[in-house]
Fold this sequence. Notes:
heterodimer, A: mainly alpha, rod-shaped, B: mainly alpha, Cytochrome C Oxidase, Chain A, 16 helices, about 70% helix, about 0% strand
Amino acid sequence: MAQLQRKTNKKVKVKKENELLGTLLSVMGVGLFIVLSWGAVYLLYLSR
Amino acid sequence: MIDKRDAKLSLFFLSISFLALFIGAIAGLLQTLVRSGTIELPLSIGYYQLLTAHGVLLALIFTTFFIVGFLYAGISKTMGALYDVPRRTGWLGFVMMTFGTILATIFILLNKATVLYTFYAPLQASPWFYVALVHVVVGSWLCAFSMWNQYYIWKKKTNNKLSPLFSYMAVMTMALWFIATLGVAATILLQFIPWSIGWVDKIDILISRTLFWYFGHPLVYFWLLPAYMCWYVVIPKIIGGKIFSDALARLAFVLFLLFSIPVGFHHQLLEPGISHSWKFFQVVLTFMVIVPSLMTAFSMFAVFETAGRKKGARGLFGWVKVLPWKDVRFFAPMMGMLIFVPAGAGGIINASHQLNQVIHNTLWVTGHFHLTVASTVALTFFGIAYWLVPYLSGRTLTPQMNKLGIIQTIMWTIGMAFMSGAMHVVGLFGAPRRTAYTTYSDHPQALDWVPYQAAMAIGGTILFLAILLLIYIIGYLAFKAPIGEMDFPLGEVEEKATSTPIILENWKLWVGISAALIFIAYTLPFWHMIEHGPPGSPGYKFW
């Protein structure tokens, strides 16, 4: 049973990696950086 | 190895490119030292003269010559040796561009064209400076015609087969360049030359600036697209991966063609004489470029992750570790890609109507384009040169030169972090761009800028040393490296990728849509400028 569970976990892990999760998070990170930078300068604009 | 005659043509373009880079870099070093108050120039040399030399030789000449040389090499590699007419036209283009470059440089060094690289009216240069620019532009058009001709003949000979991705991108890059330079050619031929010769007394400044920025923004994409070509086509091969999707890459290039041209007003957000609604419209179109930019980011991350997984990388970001960080052909463009993240964020800030008021005409803007063209583009071009120069000269990239290339890339990144970082910060404090050293009679606010200007000089000095190292490496690779065969890295497309829709190669459609967008974005505001034209201005020479 435990062996079967390990196999299932492994399958899930491989599937997730194939789905380019790292890529998705990286692009989201780029987007977040852009939004935060924009927000910071916008706050500066409001303060002036 | 490509046909030797094509390699020679490409090498000639690259040679002028690196010569311009060296001279422009000397001007850049002196500028940062003057701006920080470290040195004073002899009376015979002006700060703005250096600024003009730096901008023209680096932003216009280094980039354009490098791009044309790179594209010729890639076209010859992917579509076969250049046919006679395209090759001859290419040489004619080279001669015209080189003549224009030499003429422009002479007039800048004679202090008769100190008008900066944007040559804004009413600053007036010698007519020969504008004639020189015409030669550079028309010469580059000849190169564009030559590449399109090669593509046309190739398509005919292969019964309209899908073109190789590199060549498709080269054709698109030159299409963007041609459409964009129509604006700058119009202002030079119809406004600047008659005005500088004295055939007309006055110039319409708003129209000249509008035509310049019609060209000026897609110019950025003319620099970026060849860098993207390296990222999309070359990098996958170097890292042992495959191109994520041929269709996605072509679509991204189509979108760059459509959305990088009708957007010049976002450089003129504080320009009177253009209504807010048209500025807003062009800002919206500007933001559309974010789509192909993020598509590119996605594609590159996907290539990295897929290649890493194939090499056995585990975990969410385990693939980052297995990238070939010690291979300068990857490392230099990768640094360029990483720097493009803050560069792109800065670009969105610049193009936002209100935020532009915070940074307009400050050193922030200078810092921004030193991240885009002088880091993202330049580092990618350096990365290309490290394998392209030995490839074209029949030599090899030695491990020692590879190591020096890594050091050069690190020096460039550190130098730019100092210089561009300081420019961004002090720009937010209000320090103006395009200004020689001054403390404004020791005004407290201006004195606050001085430490940042010193940081700019430190960064500029590191960058200059990096240029010296680059020139040494390139010289070694061209003339001294061991004879041998290098690879021209060209990636293959993933087997699982969807096939490329033929519509992506329908040039009439995409150029037609591009023209339509340009007409929509420019016709009415341009008409308003003519209808409500100001009296115009005589020329001024402040140097």
